[in-house]
Amino acid sequence: MIFDTASIDSIVQTTVVHAIRRLNQILFLLSPRTAACVGILRHPGQPYPEQRETGYCSHFDSRPRGYSGCIRHIFGPATAAPALSTASHNLATGDLMTASTKWTLITAAIVVLAPMIHARESYPFQNPRLPLEDRVTNILSLMTLQEKEACFATSTAVPRLGIPDAGASEGLHGLVQGGGFGWTSVTTTTFPEVIGLASTWDPELIRRVAATQANEARYITQNPKYKHSALVVWGPNADLARDPRWGRNNESYGEDPFLVGTMSAAFVRGLQGDTPNQWEAASLLKHFLSNSNETERGHSSSNYDTALFWDYYAAPFRMAIEDGGATSLMASYNAWNHVPMTVNPVIKDVVVKQWGADGIISSDATAVEQLVTGHKYVADQQTALADTIKAGISQILTFVPDMPGRVQKAIDAKLLTEADLDGALRGKFRTAIRLGLLDSPNGNPYSRVGTLGEPEPWNTPAHKTLALDAARESIVLLKNSNNMLPLDRGHLKSVAVIGPRANDNLLDMYAGKYPYSVTPLEGIKSKADQATIVRYADGSDIEAAVKVAQESEVAIVVVGNHPVCGDKFSGQLFNTDTSTKPCADITEGREGRDRESIDLSQEGMIQRVYAANPKTVVVLVSSFPYAIDWAKSHVPAILHTAHASQEEGNAVADVLFGQYSPGGRLNQTWPKSLAQLPPMDDYDIRHGRTYMYFNGEPLYPFGYGLSYTTFQYSNIKVHASSISRTGETTVSVDIQNTGTRAGDEVVQLYVRRVPAAPGNPKEQLKGFKRITLAPGEKRTVNIPLKAASFASWNDATERFEVKPGAMELLIGSSSSEIRGSQELRIMP
């Protein structure tokens, strides 16, 4: 066969690509820094993902090089090019290479690549029939020390062994692929902030939301158009929102451990799927533990006793792991009782050994450095890194370069051993195996997602419908005097839509990129009758707002916080101590900054609009509870919803015009003022926090929410009036819709010990069920109840115990609206 010059050049271009990758694997044994280029070469055509992994089990690198830098590093400046394909073309066709050299390169490449092709199917860990632990042990036995050192970051990739990167993505209420860190921007289905999702009180909806994220993560990972690994989803957030000033209140499912644990477990099940040990995506819980203050989080300590650890702060994480199946989590910045969570032995002793979380254990970003600079817990960074790895952390988020070199120095100093590395890294490879990344595609039920030519999932009717369902279910009706709502769409002549949140749909710091979004103004215009005049004022000119209110039959005032305090999310917001810059409005907060006030800064505008038009409806779009005492006393109707749903405007309009009857419930106690709250850094909730210990009358109680219809409770039963300490029973109640509209009711079961003992909660949520009833429809709701749910921690015996005695079971529509009760006796 005779080859012309063009044919030879084409062959060279193809073989150079593969040879460079194989060369990097060889070079890694000699110089990990040189071979780090392989992480970029894995994704031709994409920009370097700044401040993210380089792909080769590498680290958050603050010095991105891109393709040109990698090729320049390997071949020298003469062959540098913006992409690998360009570099191979230059090598093949430029003056650097004679025809003889080209044939030599082709031959050498064949020799280099042949063993690699054979190796793809020659390792025991590639056998799916072997036990999981045997496969992981085999991986570690084949890895070099340098490869292990490089693996302490988000990537799971070991290219020499053919192990791919599972990838990582934020994903609390939609997969975050918005390009904010320099990678290719991808739109994804975006749901309400977590505090809004929690207001649905609908675990099945939460499961479906998470399953949608998992499907989109697989699609983005495997679709040829994107090929961006995103299978380890950082969510849910199982932290408890014990104080409404907390800057990340919007990321939590609320203040109650049972509610937060139930929703978190549902989210995990949705992400990971229904196939045991074959996951669609992997959940990584955030942030263990008691991480509910922001401004001083880099050095603060959350102090409380072990009873609160077990019964309150740790409970949602335990439920997400034991009930939901999560195996991975991220340690928080703060300390618990002066021991930073990054190195706290409770992670190994409880989370891993007792609860069985054997996956990825991650630090938060720069948390290792904060052990020295913030907590001042250890003297130097080398010790901080070693202590972190020995504590079980396998994923270290840092902006300090040269992770392999840092780990090697700790080994050289006798602070770490290779066995320490092996022990920490096992969880990363367990996760990769459970995701099916080391198996044949034929053995993985999710391996074809994104590869069959199916449409982008975020553009499908199913995902759009779910986004609307979630947004609707999250809306809470706080007030509705004289049935002000719903508005009569057919007879409404004019409406004024007023306020700073009326024509925006804002993203929080951990939201993706909308495929589309609908503002409240757009939704109202779309849903209103064609004959209805819709006037708009953004509220910046109060006199203009008053004017349109006076001219209109009804005024709708849309107010609330800006989820990023009016700033654009960027690394420049952060200080070196992990806090963020102060918010211009002290009633607002965000990651790294707690609120200083819970008043609503736009309440003055509401008062002026109400004075101009008493038919005023307030739509509060917020990430936090607000002390809106004046509005509650005067304005006839108030709705609450959260930020960041792509369907926000449609959902709000559907509720305003009665096309959907609101059924959301508050997941936090709303205080009337700061005077009702203990100091921010007081983590002992017995001092007046949450509905369980709240002092005085709140503005709105936990579990509260109204409807456009009415419900009657009757026939409350306990199917067994006494049970053993290991037994269970069922509580049932008949619910009837006694109104003229279909609607949702959230039936809530609370318990309390009789007689109440000092220090015990006033009541505790132990079950709930959201149901939809047509007008006149009646249904029996059954809520299972196990004696184990009454267990509390005993410090003396160091175990959970179910104490015998009488328990009062309370059935109601909120923590303060109890419709009936029964007694249950726990037998000795």
Biggest sheet strand order reads 9-14-13-12-10-11
Oligomer: single chain
Rounded Rg: 29 Å
Question: Helix content range of the residues, please?
Answer: 25-40%
Biggest β-sheet description: 6 strands, mixed
Key features of this structure:
single chain, 828 residues, 5-stranded parallel sheet
Polypeptide structure, described:
- 31% of the residues lie in helices and 16% in strands.
- It is α/β, with parallel strands linked by helices and 828 residues long.
- The strands form 6 sheets. A 6-stranded mixed beta sheet has the order 9-14-13-12-10-11, sandwiched between helices. Strands 1-2-3-5-8 form a 5-stranded parallel beta sheet. Strands 16-24-23-18-19 form a 5-stranded mixed beta sheet, with no helix packed on it.
- α11 (257-272) links the parallel β2 and β3 (282-288).
- The longest helix is centred in the first third of the chain and has 26 residues, at 5-30.
- The chain is globular.
- The N and C termini lie far apart (90 Å).
